[in-house]
Design brief:
The protein is an alpha/beta fold. It is built from nine helices and seven strands; from the N terminus they run E-H-E-H-E-H-E-H-E-H-E-H-H-E-H-H. Helix 1 runs parallel beside helix 2.
Length: 221
């Protein structure tokens, strides 16, 4: 995994990001946290854990943090793939590693994590409905037949990553990314992943209403 960079958007994650970085470094030696204006000491914690940290002086949103991280990773001429990974501990390192292996083995441009290809991830009925609805809306607007269009665990090949340009700085970047994958005719696959929802990640996450509003705003603005 020496040719892979893991990009972690980070905003006020001091209580958890250290463990996330340490867990990754056993498999992925290259980890960059993009701090998006944190005020809780996240930068110091991530650096102490062993990550490279790039800082936004003000909060710009997760989309902007991902774009900064992707651009940073591409500065390494050895980079052949980039993993996007959440700072809150809900993603699993072994899933990310399997997705990198699949990207290379199948000569794909991108591998997208999906909560719906097996039954390991526990979701409320309402959240499941919202995510399924989002996937249907994505298929109608992009033609991509995804089961989980808003999963933050992804692996991008270098060529595709160099052509991604996220301009939706807030959470609507997830929809924007899928639209760009469609427009670039990316070779893609979904991979089953286990998302682990903790009390912490649930508290940090968006409400379901916000998720619906994001999709509506992106499609109908």
């Amino acid at each position: 995994m020496t040719k892979t960079w893991v990009v972690i958007p980070m905003y006020n994650e001091a209580t958890v990001v250290g463990r996330v970085v340490e867990g990754l470094l056993g498999t992925f030696p290259n980890v960059v946290c993009v701090d998006d204006g944190s005020r809780d000491g996240s930068v110091a914690v991530a650096r102490k854990a062993g990550a490279v940290v790039v800082e936004h002086p003000v909060n710009l949103g997760q989309g902007a943090a991902l774009q900064t991280g992707i651009e940073y990773a591409l500065q390494d001429p050895e980079t052949d793939s980039i993993v996007t990974f959440d700072a809150d501990g809900q993603h699993r390192v072994e899933d990310a590693a399997a997705m990198v292996d699949r990207l290379r083995a199948e000569s794909l441009d991108v591998v997208l994590g999906s909560r719906f290809l097996d039954s390991r991830t526990e979701l409320t009925a309402l959240k499941r409905l919202v995510l399924k609805t989002a996937a249907v809306q994505m298929k109608l607007s992009t033609g991509l037949d995804l089961t989980d269009a808003h999963n933050g665990l992804r692996v991008l090949g270098r060529d595709l990553a160099s052509r991604i340009n996220l301009t939706q700085n807030r959470m609507a970047h997830a929809s924007e990314l899928v639209h760009q994958l469609a427009s670039l005719n990316a070779r893609y696959a979904e991979h089953p992943v286990h998302i682990i929802y903790t009390d912490y990640s649930k508290a940090k996450g968006q409400s379901l209403l916000n998720s619906v509003n994001i999709i509506a705003d992106l499609f109908f603005k």
